[in-house]
Amino acid sequence: MGGKQSRSFSNKELNEVRVSQRRTSAGRDDQPSRSSAAERIRRHATVHFGYSTLSLAQRALDETPTELWELRELQKLNLSMNSLCSLPPALGALDNLVILNLWGNNLSSLPPEISLLKKLRVLFACRNRLREVPEELGSCTCLEVLSLANNQITGLPGSLATMHNLTKLNLSHNRIVHIPTCVYSMKGLVFLHLACNRLETIADQIQDLVNLKILIVEGNSIHTLPKTLCFLESLELLNVDFNDLQSVPMEMYLLSKLGRLACHPLDKGLHIIHNPLLKPIKEVLQGGLSALYNYLKPT
Asked: What b-and-e string marks burial along 130-169, b requiring 16 or more CB atoms within 10 Å of the CB?
């Protein structure tokens, strides 16, 4: 289905909504003003690829318009690149949301009422100030994409183990020391990004992520790789650059889909530069991935 075009939601019009909000709070007689403010916001929602969509990105918002939460029909909401420090419990009223973009705000937490967004499939909450993730997020079992990158998170609640539909999880640039146990229960994961954390090890349970195609753990302090990692036969990209690896498991040759040694960040293959690899591994790597695999294969 095609998209319905509409002019952009100007800051002037947003200010008019704020004025209506202040009038509404003055007394009961201002109910018409509240309704008209909600309608002004609703006018700027579009139908994009069949979804009711509203963008309030880059509006210098430090709080959300109260009337926004009346638009229960919304399926995609973009609040990115504002100055929001919190979201009200009323967020839970938008129970038709499929995509919620909170990228680039100052959020220190997500409201527990996020659990009411049962249809949510994509949540971007990267580049905020989140220290933790609410247990209630585990109720959003339809989530397929979750990005919590560039926050201050040290772990995830066990309730997220129920996210069996999750295919992409981005936890990069946080303060995670151990891969959260719940991650190993996310059997549908295809993409797992944990770069630039504080990881020292990867647990043997990594073998449970049988659908994993991309695993990025560069920029940590990992000193050993479990041999169970080598049982992930679907892996097409494994990035362990900039860690403390001195050797690799001899079962590494089982990862046949890696195909080659890779240098460019987007290239499929094995990324393993800038590790203190011991001889003769270092010399073997100069011959490429096939040389490494031939070296590791049991005779």
From this structure: beebbebbbbbeebbbbbbbbbebebbeebbbbbeebbbb
For the record, the structure tokens of 46 come out as 């579009």
Q: Which helix (H) or strand (E) holds 193?
A: strand 191-193
Separation between Cα atoms, residue 261 and residue 283, nearest integer Å: 14
Planar angle of CA 236, 249, 181, nearest 5 degrees: 70
For 146, the enclosing helix (H) or strand (E) is: strand 145-147
Give 115-134 pLDDT, tens digit per residue.
Answer: 999 999 999 999 999 999 99
The neighbour count for residue 10, using CB atoms within 10 Å, is 11
Question: CB–CB of 46/78 below 8 Å?
Answer: no
pLDDT in tens, 165-200: 999 999 999 999 999 999 999 999 999 999 999 999
